[in-house]
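Lab meeting prep.
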Amino acid sequence: MNVHSIIIGTVCDNLFLANNIANQQNGEIMMQKKVTFKNNEHEMAGILFFPDDFDETQQYAAFPVASPAGAVKEQIATNYGSRLAKYGFIALAFDTSHQGESGGTPRQLEAPYERVEDIKCAIDYLTTLPYVDNERIGQFGVCAGAGYSMHTAMTDRRIKAVAVASMSDPASWIRDGFDGKTPVETQLALLEEASNQRTREANGADPIYGTFVPEEVTAGMPNTLEEAHEYYRTPRGQHPRSTNQVSMMSIDKMTDFSTFMFADKYLTQPILMIAGTNADTLRFSEDLLEKAASKNKELFTIEGATHVDLYDKPEYVDQAVAKAAAFFKANL
């Protein structure tokens, strides 16, 4: 690779990304490169992050970084990918199919099995790079991307180790509600409406979109949703390509997805789950710690952190990155 092809993080052709990295990395220069790769018929958009002392004649451990639902690569995946690269890894942040700069129609679709395929295709791409050691490929994810990361590792045995932060079960949220108490009757009514919308769109109707996070904060709202609003819908973390839209066509696809099914049989790789002690999603990590077949598994908690704190707050993200880096160094 010609060193001139590596984009420096303070270059202003992508002002949001440059400012984001500068803010999160105390102004340090980052080595990165915009890339594209294929997921079947459509093109995926990504950003490769390189170690400070990158040498194209050497080989490095590498991993994709899977984003939360509705996020784009310039947000949380960049916060982690850029930091983890400083520990000597190649990290690939990418936009989910149907979202951001990645292709795929309909737009703003959240389709779990495609999210899993996204990760596998990202690994395909990494294996084509001469400076990636194919025997040292891992996987990292945050929030929904963490759940998808664990699911992918069950069947893609190229993944040698998985580390995640603020893990959630995205299918469970849609199926059972944020508190896990949505009645079956309500779930069935939602599936009826999603099925009817599929018929309408097949006959030329416009798509209908819901929201990933609330557009307004209301009294009694779960803490994670309130903080997600603050991150995604205010200058703290918002990005023009993170539209907060989710296609109604996502509902049935998410309802019948079981994120952690067969973890007791197939999730045998070393796994690390990082979660805040104040995160109302901590239960997902606790449950998987008990269920996963892996003999090398750990839940690392960060005192005082909430679910969304691990998206971007340096005092918490830096702890998560240091722990994940040590884990990957030991297991890749």
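Slide two material, second protein:
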Amino acid sequence: MKSFLKNYRQSPRKVRLVAGLIRRRSVPRARILLDTAPKRAAVPMRKLLESAVANAKHNDSKTSEENLFVKEIRIDEGPTLKRSRARARRAAYVIRKRTSRISLALGEREKKKEAKASPAISKTKKLKS
């Protein structure tokens, strides 16, 4: 129940903001948060979530989306593209275009067992007066 996105062309620092929104959330709640998040990284993160859900359903057909949650989401730094910018006196500054590696793992919450209600007391004691 894992899925990966490699070499995503946005810095890990910016992507981690979106990852923090959905960490330890249920899948339906994470979808809503990603749809409404005003960040560029929310769109590929939503596709990654859908891919992880599809993987979970493929591996175990009994899996329900309501029981799935984002167990782990990790944003690592990918390869950095290095570009140069011309400066005065034939100098050059290095511009680092950072990439991200995103790994998302889903877990399955166990259904909560409903506690049986204790039966109400059928007989009440009479007070002696």
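Talking points for slide two:
Residues 24 and 70 are 5 Å apart (CA to CA).
The beta strands are 2-8, 68-77, 81-86, 92-97, 100-108.
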